[in-house]
Every structure is written in structure tokens, then in C-alpha cells.
Design a protein that fits this description.
alpha+beta; Arc Repressor Mutant, subunit A; 220 residues; two-stranded antiparallel sheet
């Protein structure tokens, strides 16, 4: 019996005030016409991460993003084509990042994670696992900041956390915890969002890593 290996990549972004995932409409059997997570078979001369990066760029035109290995899925009957084990990854990108022309981006669509269509293979389970991992890592990693542009407002940062967690956070408590962390640098730049301008900030990842090394967590 031959065993083949694939990689699948769950791509998250916050778009239109919702956490969304990028899906590809399959053009071949099995599950032709059904939506699926971007992915494909691993080539003989490449690592798993190289395969994941290649699939991202070939199928969506998205490259150079936060990418982390998630889990391996190997249920014997998960793929009608035979014994196929997949190593899943998840990626995080800012919501305003475009899909590049000249790739398979024409078949790629963003879907809110709360309103998913029927998915091919076991991709619904993979996606749910990725979402759980993302939520659990908010407290002790920089994943939330990977979904923001380089410059952002405190309101935009809070919306990222609320969107991923699926619940509202108290504005005063949230900003107090962020201020205690000292991981943001205020800029002398402002964004006009309505009644009064909102100050822009940038994230300081090195300070965040120092806090993590000391075991300081700030759950929201």
C-alpha cells in the first residue's frame, strides 16, 4: 500500500468586521465544484513547509505570511483517492491584502467562519481545529497582530480580539491591559475615523517576547 502526503493551509483574515477563511473551489474530482482549503501533494524534493508555501502562492498568489504547522490528519478514509495523510498549516494575513492576478486566485473566495459552505474531504474538521488553536494562542503569542496592518488604532486592535474570540470586550479593561504590556509604540500620526481622530500605533514584537519569556500572560 502506498501512502501519499499533502499539505493544507487554513488562511484567516478579518474582513468586513468578521473572521473569514480563504477557500478554493475545486475544479477536479473528487469533490469537483465543492469548496476546499488550499492545498496539494508534497513533492519529493521539498519540505512540508516549502510545500505549504508553494501551494499558497500557486493557488492564491499569497506569499510571505505568518505560517504555522497545525496538526496531521490521517484517518484512513479521509480521501477517496487512497491513503493520504495531510499536514495542516494555518496562515494569518491582513484583511486588505489582495489576491494576485496570474494565479488561481480567480477561484478563491473569502467566507465567514460562522457561515461555511459544505467543504471537501475532512476540511471542516481541519478548519475548526485551526480556529480553536487561533483562539487559544491569543493570550501568549503575536497572532492577533498578524491580522493588522503595520499601523493601527487601539479600536482596530480590540476588534481583532473580539472578532476572533466571538465576544465583546470591555474597552477600558482592554486598553488598561494593553498599556500594562508596553508592547505598542504610539506614533505622531492620527486616523480620522469620525468625531475625533484616533492615534496610530505600531507593535513591538521584541518586548512581547521578553514578557512571554518571563511567563507573563494577559488573557482577554
Amino acid at each position: 500500500m502506498s501512502i501519499r502526503v499533502t499539505v493544507d493551509v487554513v488562511i484567516f483574515a478579518i474582513r468586513e468586521a468578521a473572521l473569514q477563511v480563504l477557500l478554493i473551489r475545486r475544479g477536479v474530482a473528487p469533490f469537483k465544484g465543492r469548496m476546499a482549503i488550499p492545498g496539494g501533494f508534497v513533492h519529493e524534493n521539498e519540505s512540508l513547509e516549502e510545500a505549504a508555501q508553494r501551494e499558497l502562492e500557486e493557488e492564491t498568489g499569497v506569499g510571505k505570511v505568518y505560517l504555522e504547522q497545525l496538526y496531521s490528519f490521517g484517518e484512513p478514509r479521509r480521501d477517496p483517492r487512497g491513503r493520504v495523510i495531510t499536514v495542516a498549516y494555518y496562515a494569518l494575513i491582513p484583511g486588505d491584502r489582495p489576491l494576485h492576478a496570474g494565479s488561481d486566485a480567480s477561484s478563491a473566495v473569502w467566507c465567514p467562519v460562522e457561515r461555511l459552505p459544505p467543504l471537501a474531504f475532512d476540511h471542516e474538521g481541519i478548519l475548526c481545529y485551526a480556529l480553536e488553536r487561533l483562539r487559544n494562542k491569543l493570550d501568549y503569542t503575536t497572532v492577533g497582530f498578524q491580522l493588522l496592518p503595520r499601523k493601527f488604532t487601539l479600536s482596530e486592535l480590540q476588534r481583532v480580539y473580539e472578532t476572533i474570540l466571538g465576544r465583546k470586550l470591555d474597552k477600558r479593561n482592554f486598553r488598561k491591559k494593553i498599556d500594562l504590556l508596553k508592547i505598542l509604540r504610539p506614533l505622531r500620526e492620527w486616523r480620522h475615523t469620525g468625531r475625533k481622530p484616533a492615534r496610530l500605533y505600531v507593535f513591538l514584537p521584541k518586548k512581547f517576547e521578553k514578557l512571554k519569556d518571563r511567563g507573563i500572560l494577559f488573557p482577554f
